[in-house]
Amino acid sequence: MPGTGQEKLKVLIRRATIQKRVREVAREITKDFKGERLHLIGVLKGACIFLSDLVREINLDTSIDFIAVSSYGKGKLSSGQVRVLKDLDSSIEGLNVVLVEDILDTGITLSYLLRILRQRKPHVLRVAALLDKPSRRLRPVKGNYVGFTIPNEFVVGYGLDYAERYRNLKDVCILSLPPG
Ligand code: IMP
Ligand code: MG
Question: Which of 81, 110, 160, 171 to mutate to test ligand 1, by most ligand atoms within 8 A of the CB atom?
Answer without folding.
Answer: 160
